[in-house]
Design brief:
By secondary structure, this protein is an all-alpha fold. The chain contains nine helices and no strands.
Amino acid sequence: MDSAEQAAGERRVRELLIEPLARRGLARPSSLTRAQYEEMCRDLCARLAYMDSLSLEALEEQVAANPAGKDLDRLPIANRILDWAGQIQPPRDDSVSPLMRRAFSHRMGAAAIEQGWGPELLDYLRRKRLWPGEFMVGELRKAGHDNARQMVLIEERLAAGRVVPPEQLRWRDERAAAAARCRRIAELVQAGGAA
């Protein structure tokens, strides 16, 4: 996203999310000063600039239906809003969070790419926004092994000239694209020296 797209996206967030919520009477969270609230709104505008108008309108509806505070008259904190936004319209593939960059620059990420469970790690990081613990790494590794086996079976069927259902081909292509994204994230970190 270039600077003009970012600026237009930030305006869209302000017009379709922040201002309508203020018009509905949702006040700043009581734990924030006015300056902190204004900074929270600026940060939300910057982080959600990728969202399209319909998704922002859906997010505004969801936030308005789930107010915070004792009297249910407060805007939820930014983390809650960002979580809902990610469920409604996940960030584009070209936006790589610091958590993802760090995970794929870590030995865990390198192992995930090398051992074939990078797509599972990437999906987990996108959904949970949480560093996986030892147990979860084991689960991701197992799921990756199972999915890699499924990929081999699909390739064998194709090589033998057998028919493969379109949904399996689509899944294979999506998983291959996710594996390529994992490698690009690792390369991005190495090129930027962020590891």
